Amino acid sequence: MPTSPASPSADTPDAALSAVDPTAEVAERIRYLDEVMAEIDAEVRRRRASGDLPAGLERELDELFLEFSPVGLQGRARLRETLSLVDGSAYIDIAVPTESNKAVGAYIKRVIRKALGWYMGFIVAQVVKFAWSVSRMLHVVVDHIEILEATVDANRSVDLPTALLPSAVPGSAWWAPAAVDALRSAPGRVVVGDCGDGSLVEALIAEGIDAYGVDPSDIALEPALMRGVDVRGEGVLHHLDVVATEALAGVALTGSVQWLRPIERERLIELLSTRLVVDGIVVLHSTSPESWAASTSPVVRDLAPGRPLHAETWAHLLVASGFSVSTVLAGGGDRSLAHVTAGSADADTLNAAIDTINARLLGVSEYLVVAVRVR
User: Fold this and answer.
1) Residues 212/191, Cβ–Cβ less than 8 Å
2) Domain assignment present for 59
3) Is residue 139 domain-shared with residue 171, that is, in the same domain?
């Protein structure tokens, strides 16, 4: 085996080459490492052929390496690396070593191994069959996990930057009085999602309602915290997920409910139908899809994971999940175009076009849906 090359002195050819080309020393070290690895491989092959390496020793060393070495890989590579440890451990070797320092000891060991071989072989065959079945099942599971990860990664959307969202002041919004009126009859505690500065929470408390708020933006919550309002820094979905079943009597939703991903919207409806008591109240405020498209900044529109729904759609989803929709209010300003007078030329054609424009682009900009859980 070659010895490690000495550090070149200033007057050696290697030193002169390194001074001219900085990569020469690196190339030399790579060449040297290749030579060492080739000699190691040759030595392993020689010892295998001579029988110096006991049967199963290399497999045992591989297993020990996988078991105790730090796992440096991530993701799918880590799954596969760990699975290889399972595959390597699925086989059980019943060839018990019989070497001994005493001749009689080796003889006794061989007799015992031969006498119990048929018995152990029967048991081991069943254990190995089970181990390989489990290993095969784990391969199927890992294959499915990789497919699911690829699907999730392909459909992953960028999180909407919080800094681009408008500051929420729900307590001064047009729908706040209607929300307070609807929640006044709530038979217990009420949570306000995306509560912003906590103004709506304060309005509810002023009416004797046991209310608190949640919002994922710590900056938005600062005014509420300064005033001592009961607010928490977390998203409404995460909060509802940890709330006990039927622990709430009312939920007020605004803000992020407008751009939830479809799967998050389904999860929200499911949580509302389990976290609210029977007769619990949902108050949901949202911008209309037409107003969203016309008034929201292009960055928010492009990066938002979802889009607002129409009031009719929310009503349909709530009814399908055991709610009864009691109120649908329109507000936030009506940008509809007025009809032309009947005496004008082509008045019917123009009014039909105006109706189409109002329905698709203009109309009411916001709405409020109030629903009660009935089952």
Assistant:
1) yes
2) no
3) no
| List of residues 6+ apart from 340 with CB closer than 8 A | 347, 350, 351, 354
Q: How far apart are CA 179 and CA 196, in angstroms?
A: 16
Indicate if 207 and 354 belong to the same structural domain. Answer: yes
> Which pLDDT score, from 0 to 100, does residue 167 have?
63
Pair (326, 222) in one structural domain? yes
> Could you identify the residue written with the tokens 């009935």?
374
pTM score > 0.70 for this model? no
Domains contained in the chain, number: 3
Q: How far is CA 276 from CA 143, 316, 324, in A?
A: 39, 18, 13
Spatial CA neighbour of 92 closest among 54, 64, 133, 120? 120
Do residues 149 and 173 both lie within one domain?
A: no
Q: Could you read off the pLDDT of 119-164 as tens digits, one per residue?
A: 888 888 888 888 888 888 988 998 888 888 888 777 776 666 666 6
What tokens does 197 get? Answer: 């500065």
**Structural domain for 37, as ranges:** 1-53
Assigned domain for 64 exists: no
Q: Is residue 65 part of a domain?
A: no
Compute CA distances 309 → 131, 231, 259, 326, whole Å.
Answer: 52, 27, 9, 18
**Cβ–Cβ under 8 Å, residues 224 and 203:** no
Question: Helix H segments across 198-285?
Answer: 199-206, 218-226, 236-242, 262-275
